[in-house]
Amino acid sequence: MIDIGANLADASFDPDRPDVLQRAWDAGVDHIVLTGSSAFSNRRAQELTSLAPARLSATAGLHPHHAEEWTAHLADSIRAMAAEGRIVAVGECGLDYFRDLSPRKAQRDAFAAQLEIAIEHHLPVFLHQRDAHVDFLPMLSEYRRSLVDCVVHCFTDTAAALDDYLALDCHIGITGWICDERRGQHLLHCVGDIPHDRLMIETDAPYLLPRTIRPKPKTRRNEPMHLGEIANTIATATGQEPAAVQASTNATARRFFRLAG
Question: Which domains are assigned to the chain?
Answer without folding.
Answer: 2-257 (3.20.20.140)
